[in-house]
Design a protein that fits this description.
Strand order of the largest sheet: 1-2-6
Structural class: alpha+beta
Order of helices and strands: HEEEHHEEE
Number of strands: 6
Number of helices: 3
Radius of gyration: 18 Å
Shape: elongated
Helix content: 10-25%
Distance between the termini: 30 Å
Length: 102
C-alpha cells in the first residue's frame, strides 16, 4: 500500500553489485492513543518512547519537526483525543545485494 508517487521519488544508486537507496525524508504520523490523552507531548515522549533520548524529541518539537495536527506546539502542549502527531525523519536504508537472474 505504498503510494506510487512516493515510489517514483526514490533514488537508487548501484555500487559494486549492491543497490543503495539514497537517504530521504519521510513523515510519520500516528493518532493519539488513549494513554497519551491529558499528558504533555514532552511527558508522552518521555514515558512511551525509548528509541531516542528525550532531548531528541524536545529538539524536534522546538524546531517544528514534530507537529500536532500539522501545527507547531510547545513541549507543554496537552495531547487531546483524536490529535494527530507527526514527525519528519531522515531515513538511511541499508544496501541490498542486486538480484541477477542470469
Amino acid at each position: 500500500n505504498f503510494p506510487r508517487e512516493a515510489l517514483d521519488k526514490v533514488e537508487f544508486e548501484y555500487v559494486a553489485g549492491r543497490r543503495y537507496i539514497k537517504p530521504y525524508f519521510q513523515e510519520l504520523k500516528t493518532r493519539a492513543k488513549g494513554r497519551w490523552v491529558g499528558k504533555t507531548i514532552e511527558s508522552m515522549f518521555s514515558e512511551f518512547t525509548t528509541f531516542h533520548p528525550l532531548s531528541y524529541y524536545v529538539q524536534g518539537i522546538e524546531t517544528g519537526k514534530i507537529l500536532v495536527n500539522s501545527k507547531r506546539v510547545n513541549v507543554d502542549a496537552i495531547i487531546k483525543h483524536k490529535d494527530i502527531i507527526s514527525q519528519m525523519v531522515h531515513v538511511h536504508e541499508p544496501p541490498v545485494n542486486m538480484w541477477n537472474p542470469n
